Amino acid sequence: MNESVATLFVVDDEPDARRGAAALASSMGIRCETFASGEELLGRFNPAATGCLLIDLRLSGMSGLELIERLTAKGCTLPVILISAYADVRTTVRAMKNGAVTVIEKPYQADELADAIEAAVESSRRAREEQAKRAEVRRRISSLTQRERQTMEMIMAGKPNKAIARELDLSQRTVDRVRAVVLQKMGVDSAVGLARVVTDARVAD
């Protein structure tokens, strides 16, 4: 599986349904891979893939809900569209807790499914961008020297340069310089910006 290309992964044990979903994806300019069972998908799925999943609730073998839960356990964060003619409130809630962004009832209109796929793919794209940004922040943090990291933590704690200089037994001029280096390395121009990007990256860990 190509993890860099947004792909619609269709899991349905009905050949006509798989062909229909693939044709719809093609008309939308979206790459599509189809699977006849959850077991088949799990045997080939890459958790780093980009795009979304279209899963039928009732499958031969494991159910659509079981598949979603197995994927979640494997670290999959792709949005899921669950297709069902039998979904009830309990099923919907369980699906949503495990990554389903929407549950579409059969029979459905092609436009309804296309809208759901478009929204899910866009959600996946935004999530990937945010992951990349956080990874870059973590890379920048790892590039800091021990003194720079100590200074960064104190800046984030709201301590003025004079207090930082006293705690680290440095001159204020040195702290001014180190502070400037920290902000430059982290790609921000203020203490507020520093706190925002670092906190966001840490919360997501």
H-E string: EHEHEHEHEHHHHH
Q: What's the overall average pLDDT, rounded?
A: 89
Low-confidence stretches: none
User: What is the CATH third-level topology name of the largest domain?
Assistant: Rossmann fold
Corresponding CATH superfamily of the largest domain: Response regulator
Question: Which CATH architecture of the largest domain?
Answer: 3-Layer(aba) Sandwich
Comma- or semicolon-separated keywords:
single chain; 205 residues; alpha/beta; Rossmann fold; 2 domains; 5-stranded parallel sheet; 9 helices; 14% strand; elongated
Please describe the topology of this protein:
Elements: E1 6-11, H1 15-27, E2 31-35, H2 38-44, E3 50-56, H3 64-73, E4 80-84, H4 89-97, E5 100-105, H5 110-142, H6 146-156, H7 161-168, H8 172-186, H9 191-203
Parallel strand pairs: 1-2, 1-3, 3-4, 4-5
